[in-house]
Design a protein that fits this description.
- The complex is a heterodimer of chains A (102) and B (191).
- Chain A is 75% helix and 0% strand.
- Chain A has three helices and no strands.
- In chain A, α1 packs antiparallel against α2 (30-55) and α2 (30-55) runs antiparallel to α3.
- The longest helix of chain A is centred in the last third of the chain and has 29 residues, at 59-87.
- In chain A, 54% of the residues are buried.
- By secondary structure, chain B is an all-alpha fold.
- Chain B has helices spanning 2-31, 35-55, 59-84, 98-122, 139-147, 151-177.
- In chain B, α2 runs antiparallel to α3 (59-84).
- Mean pLDDT of chain B is 83; it is low at 181-186.
- The chains are: A mainly alpha (102), B mainly alpha (191).
- Chains A and B meet through α1, α2 and α3 of A and α1, α2, α3, α4 and α5 of B.
């Protein structure tokens, strides 16, 4: 019996990505939208690492590490925005944040 | 032969446990009402993903995942949620609205699209993976790749992190002054 192939990991990664999309579209709290974004990024990371193992080359892992750095940066800026919004007493609800609407 | 078969069986057991923990905690992040519980579920998600990375011979990425994500990023998330007091936001309350139906439909459409694309492009050809050496995915290989083939990506990553640090400081400074424009009077500067 062989071990789990790349296809199985890809299935997990696709379902994880769809879960993240659902969270981004469904939730109203910007904090949980950020958490769902992390799920999407991790789904992409899993696919990258699965293909890296399949090809036997390390480039996919380099890409995954770069994605991790970008995700950390995105969290810093996103959380900074959310804290700034909360200090201005703006409602933390992405349906009500319509100030930029033209 | 029997030993190898038992090893693969063990790999399957670990894989199934990690994959279901990963998907279950992902759904939990999306459906928990309290953001604090969502963040805790995301830590579980990241941990089980690190197990999957270990099964894919990506030891360094798994360690970085636990240190950077489950350690640093999630602690920052939990601090912010504790600071803001975590308003409840029930995603499934009040019956199915058109927004809920639209969100579920869009996510399902994306799922089907990706599955069909992968199936058409690589259906049945992803079964035999390459043989890798024991050093595959270790810090030595990652470091060598980062400093030779992917040096530009390495440098760009440092610039991105610097930009994020500057952005965080700027946002925090503006939030502390309580205004973004020039409407409120400037407070006395304490040096």
């Amino acid at each position: 019996m062989p071990g789990p192939t790349v296809t199985w990991y890809l299935a997990v990664s696709v379902v994880l990505f769809a879960t993240g999309v659902l969270g981004v579209l469904l939730r109203r709290s910007p904090l949980i939208v950020l958490l769902s974004l992390e799920i999407m990024l991790n789904g992409a990371n899993l696919a990258l690492i699965a293909f890296s193992r399949y090809q036997g080359r390390g480039d996919g892992q380099i890409f995954a590490l770069s994605v991790m750095a970008v995700a950390a940066s995105e969290v810093v800026v996103g959380l900074g925005l959310i804290v700034a919004l909360a200090r201005r007493k703006v409602a933390l609800d992405v349906d009500k944040l319509t100030t930029l609407r033209g | 032969m029997l030993l190898a078969s038992f090893g693969n069986f063990l790999v399957w057991v670990v894989w199934i446990a990690a994959a279901f923990a990963c998907l279950g905690s992902g759904v939990a992040v999306v459906s928990f009402t309290n953001p604090f519980y969502s963040a805790l579920a995301l830590i579980g998600n990241l941990g089980s993903l690190a197990v999957l990375y270990l099964l894919l011979a990506a030891e360094f990425v798994a360690a970085a995942q636990v240190l950077v994500y489950a350690g640093a990023v999630m602690v920052m998330f939990l601090f912010v949620i504790a600071y803001l007091g975590g308003q409840a936001d029930a995603p499934w309350a009040g019956g199915p609205s058109w927004q809920t139906i639209g969100a579920v439909g869009a996510a399902a459409a994306l799922l089907v699209e990706v599955v069909v694309a992968i199936g058409l492009k690589a259906g049945g050809r992803l079964s035999d993976e390459a043989d890798v050496r024991r050093s595959f995915g270790g810090p030595a290989q990652i470091g060598r790749l980062f400093l030779t083939d992917h040096l530009l990506a390495f440098e760009i990553t440092s610039v991105v992190l610097l930009a994020a640090a500057v952005g965080g400081v700027v946002l925090g400074a503006h939030a502390r002054r309580g205004e973004w424009g020039s409407a409120a009077p400037e407070r006395r500067r304490t040096t």
